[in-house]
Amino acid sequence: MVNDLLEQCDMYARDNNALCVERIIISIGERSAIEPSLLLSAFETFKQESRFCAKAELEIQIQKVKLQCYDCGAEFEVEALDYASCKQCGTQNVKIIAGSDMLLLSIEMNVEDNVENM
């Protein structure tokens, strides 16, 4: 997972003729089964092997779980561990639409001494 993230950032840096990646911002869902502190520790270890990310900082944002009701269409964030029913109509016919994955949100790169956001 960390290697995939670093490879993706290296690819973007190479494609944009960057000198280096300075900052990587990701989102981790509450239901992603990813422990932020362990991910950060692994990132600090593995980034040393990266061509462009060796000095990059990793910022982690936590994404709350969001559900959508199949019956009434309502979308809402989950509070505590209440994943079973719709806040709008009470049915248990819901699905997770956010908060169960890891997403790359932004990469800040140094391109000939100018910082660019992707």
UniProtKB/TrEMBL annotation:
Query: Which controlled-vocabulary keywords does the entry list?
Result: Metal-binding, Nickel, Zinc
Do you know which Pfam families this protein is assigned to? HypA
Q: So which residues are the signal peptide here?
A: none
Q: Give the GO terms filed under biological process for this record.
A: protein maturation
Entry's Gene3D superfamilies? 3.30.2320.80
**Which superkingdom?**
Bacteria
Gene Ontology molecular function: nickel cation binding; zinc ion binding
Q: Which InterPro entries match?
A: Hydgase_Ni_incorp_HypA/HybF_CS, HypA/HybF, RPABC4/Spt4
Would you identify the family this protein belongs to, as annotated? Belongs to the HypA/HybF family.
Q: Which PANTHER family match?
A: HYDROGENASE MATURATION FACTOR HYPA
Protein known as: [NiFe] hydrogenase nickel incorporation protein HypA
Q: Which organism is it from?
A: Helicobacter fennelliae MRY12-0050
